[in-house]
Amino acid sequence: MRTEPKKVILFDVYQTLIDIDINDENKKRNQTNAWENLAKSLEQYGVRISPAELRELNEKKQESFYVGKDKKIQHHNFCKLLGQLLKEDLSVELPQEEICSLIYEYHKIARGYARLYPGVAETLALLKEKYTLSIASYTQGCFTKSELIELGIDKYFSYFVYTSDIGFHKASSKFYERCLEITGEKAENCAMVGDNYDVDILIPQKLGLKTVWIKNPLTAHQHTHLFEQEPKDMINLEEFDKLPEVIEKIFN
Questions:
Q1: 120 lies in the same domain as 156
Q2: Domain count of the chain?
Q3: pTM (predicted TM-score)
Q4: Is 1 part of a structural domain of the chain?
Q5: Which of 8, 128, 218, 237 counts the highest number of beta carbons within 10 A?
Q6: 162 & 234 share domain
Q7: Is residue 96 located within the same domain as residue 147?
């Protein structure tokens, strides 16, 4: 007897599952502090460099990476670029795990706070009983992996797909094509859940994935020009615990 394929739910991370500080002024200040901390951390390897110099070297590595590439479509890998920077510009060669650890410490300062939205952990636990869950996030995997562990929700996911690892932004259909390859399911058996209506909803819909828009009051205003009336498969962020019934509905 043939078993029914287990449906897959793909989740955006930031401002869908995890709340981080997106205030522009705070972000600018936090990033400055994060570069200062990263420069200081390199002293243990005999590197003496100012935060401004380190930041400039990183920007040059990024510029070099994007030569001949579309920044709106392709995405760099911070871990790999920092490894290259350390080796080629500062004559320090470190294992990837150590570089990721440095970047995570950088990120914890740069992000400001990080906390789960109410009901997220409980809802993921419930969904995991019936579906296969996967992360599908625009981020640097080297720090988001650790962040999911820190917040105690990594255990609910079977797959982790990050733009930095794939090399493509979520604005590219190639990102979602890769999600389907990694999870091994057809588009009609997958649903994408996220707060960015443009890349979490419209792009995957073009490939045949089902979608649920999370209406986050902090980000929703950025997307209202993309539709005349609110989509039917939508939940307000404060009602995240209603997600299982919405998922049940769209798959039946």
A1: yes
A2: 2
A3: 0.93
A4: no
A5: 8
A6: yes
A7: no
Of the three residues 51, 86, 110, the one that is the final residue of a domain is: 110
CA distance 147 to 151: 6
Nearest to 117 by CA among 186, 17, 32: 17
Look up the domain containing 231 and give its range: 8-20+116-250
At 231 the pLDDT is: 81
Q: Which residues of 230-243 are buried (b: 16+ CB within 10 A; e: fewer)?
A: eeebbbebeebeeb
H/E/C letters for each residue in the chain? Answer: CCCCCCCEEEECCECCCEEECCCHHHHHHHHHHHHHHHHHHHHHHCCCCCHHHHHHHHHHHHHHHCCCCCCCCECCCHHHHHHHHHHHHHCCCCCHHHHHHHHHHHHHHHCCCEEECCCHHHHHHHHHCCCEEEEEECCCHHHHHHHHHHCCCHHHCCEEEEHHHHCECCCCHHHHHHHHHHHCCCHHHEEEEECCHHHHHHHHHHCCCEEEEEECCCCHHHCHHHCCCCCCCEEEHHHHHHHHHHHHHHCC
For residue 130, the Cα-to-chain-centroid distance in whole angstroms is 23
Give a yes or no: residue 3 inside a domain.
Answer: no
In the block, residue with structure tokens 């200040």: 29
Average pLDDT over residues 184-199: 96
223 contacts: CB under 8 Å, gap ≥ 6: 196, 197, 198
Q: What is the pLDDT of residues 106-146, one digit of tens each?
A: 999 999 999 999 999 999 999 999 999 999 999 999 999 99
Phi, psi angles (nearest 5°) of residue 58: -65, -40
Phi and psi (nearest 5°) for 3?
-85, 150
